[in-house]
Amino acid sequence: MQLNIYLISHPIIKFLSDSIIYSQDNSITKNKYSHHIGLLLIYEIMRKWTRIRNIYIKKLSYIQELSLLNSNQRYYIFTNLSQTYQIVTEIESLLPNIQIIHAEYNKHISYPSNMIFSDFQKKNIKIIILERILYQDYIVKLIQELNINKKIPLDQINIACISCYKPILDIIGKAYPELNIYTTKITIQMQNIT
């Protein structure tokens, strides 16, 4: 099985991602575009995961319809907030069952160690690993930590990034070919993208 890469190619997303990756504009514009593209990337992943239940309440003269999210379903975004803060602002306010977890990637991956999931929770957890630009292989260590040590199935983990390098995709593909990656651009060679 090979790596599932979803190259999001909507014209607005292409414009935003190119403006972030290649533009030398001021940081205010980049931050604004990063915020928008972050919402669109998360939306793209969440629309496949989120299930709504419709409840119909019969009133005296009409039927009221309510749409509810599964309250048992939990979503986690693992990201280095120092690099992706602009991308994830407002996401928690839009989705009530989502939690953003700051993960630092130095020589060792660090995130809150008190995250212990019960077997029931593991079935109802969806994880997004969010990066601005995917260019280092520490992501493999984080996936290994979540999959092997925390026992989170790989079909419940997705990676989202604005741009990624093909060599890193090759590394991830060899280690975890069944993962899904959502991105707007794949770059063949390493270049100076800020």
What's this model, at a glance?
With 194 residues, the protein is of the alpha/beta class. The chain is 38% helix and 31% strand. Helix 7 (166-175) links the parallel strand 9 (157-165) and strand 10 (180-187).
Topology at a glance:
Elements: E1 4-7, H1 11-22, H2 27-49, E2 52-58, E3 63-69, E4 74-79, H3 81-88, H4 91-94, E5 98-102, E6 104-105, E7 109-110, H5 119-123, E8 125-134, H6 138-149, E9 157-165, H7 166-175, E10 180-187
Parallel strand pairs: 1-10, 4-5, 4-8, 8-9, 9-10
Antiparallel strand pairs: 2-3, 6-7
Keywords: Plastid
Organism: Plumaria plumosa
Protein name: Uracil phosphoribosyltransferase
Structural features:
194 residues, alpha/beta, Rossmann fold, six-stranded parallel β-sheet, two-stranded antiparallel ribbon, 38% helix, globular, Uracil phosphoribosyltransferase, plastid
Structure write-up:
It is globular and about 65 Å long. A 6-stranded parallel β-sheet has the order 1-10-9-8-4-5. With 194 residues, the protein is of the alpha/beta class. The mean pLDDT is 84. Helix content is 38%, strand content 31%. The chain has a single domain, classed as Rossmann fold (3-Layer(aba) Sandwich), CATH 3.40.50.
Profile the largest sheet.
Answer: 6 strands, parallel
* First-last Cα distance: 33 Å
| Mean pLDDT across all amino acids | 84
Strand count: 10
In CATH terms, what is the architecture?
3-Layer(aba) Sandwich
> What is the quaternary state of this protein?
single chain
Give the C-alpha Rg. 18 Å
**Total number of helices:** 7
Structural class: alpha/beta
Helix content: 25-40%
CATH topology: Rossmann fold
- The coarse silhouette is globular
Outline the low-pLDDT stretches: none
Order of strands in the sheet with the most strands? Answer: 1-10-9-8-4-5
